[in-house]
Amino acid sequence: MIHYALYSTSFGELGIAASDSGLVAIDLQSGARPLAPREGWHRGASDVTDRAADQLRAYFAGERRQFDLPLAAAGTPFQQSVWQALCAIPYGETCSYRALADAIGNPKAVRAVARANGANPLSIVVPCHRVIGADGTLTGYAGGLDMKARLLTLEGAPFT
């Protein structure tokens, strides 16, 4: 069963969905693709959604730099490899799509890496906001570029 709940945070309302195995989806409700319950999802919190909300609130308050949550997002093996590489980008640092493609051992897959990054269903916890253009500028983010800038500023990460 997938549990789905909305949580208020200092960065806006979050939709969080989780199975018994772990987080399935997280998204800022103000972004380009707000999370809505899907067929078969149960409206209501679970231990995992509550834990995720608590850790995200601590992150937004500057009190947490890493997340300790079970992840269970569905994706292709390629997407999973990109999302795993995203988790390796340290708090307060950024990387380019090319560097991310290099990190997964597929340097020619820059565009595919960008698509997998954009398909990340676990916004913030799997830190796709830490990927910026090779020239240091902000590039697309489902939560909007203003939110991406807020998250990177919170972390003290460099960008132009």
TrEMBL record:
Any single biological process term in GO: methylation
PROSITE patterns attached to this UniProt entry: MGMT
Protein name, as recorded: Methylated-DNA--protein-cysteine methyltransferase
Residue ranges occupied by any Methylated-DNA-[protein]-cysteine S-methyltransferase DNA binding domain in the UniProt entry: 77-157
Gene3D superfamilies: Methylated DNA-protein cysteine methyltransferase domain, Winged helix-like DNA-binding domain superfamily/Winged helix DNA-binding domain
Miscellaneous section: This enzyme catalyzes only one turnover and therefore is not strictly catalytic. According to one definition, an enzyme is a biocatalyst that acts repeatedly and over many reaction cycles.
Methylguanine DNA methyltransferase ribonuclease-like domain: residues covered: 2-72
Annotated catalytic residues: C128 (nucleophile)
Residues in coiled coil: none
Keywords assigned by UniProt, alphabetized: Cytoplasm, DNA damage, DNA repair, Methyltransferase, Transferase
Enzyme class: transferase
Protein purpose: Involved in the cellular defense against the biological effects of O6-methylguanine (O6-MeG) and O4-methylthymine (O4-MeT) in DNA. Repairs the methylated nucleobase in DNA by stoichiometrically transferring the methyl group to a cysteine residue in the enzyme. This is a suicide reaction: the enzyme is irreversibly inactivated.
Family assignment from sequence similarity: Belongs to the MGMT family.
Cellular compartments annotated: Cytoplasm
Transferase in keyword set: yes
EC number: 2.1.1.63
Species of origin: Microbulbifer celer
Catalytic activity from the UniProt record: a 4-O-methyl-thymidine in DNA + L-cysteinyl-[protein] = a thymidine in DNA + S-methyl-L-cysteinyl-[protein]; a 6-O-methyl-2'-deoxyguanosine in DNA + L-cysteinyl-[protein] = S-methyl-L-cysteinyl-[protein] + a 2'-deoxyguanosine in DNA
A GO MF term: methylated-DNA-[protein]-cysteine S-methyltransferase activity
InterPro entries (UniProt xref): MethylDNA_cys_MeTrfase_AS, MethylDNA_cys_MeTrfase_DNA-bd, MethylDNA_cys_MeTrfase_DNAb, MethylG_MeTrfase_N, MGMT, MGMT_N_sf, WH-like_DNA-bd_sf
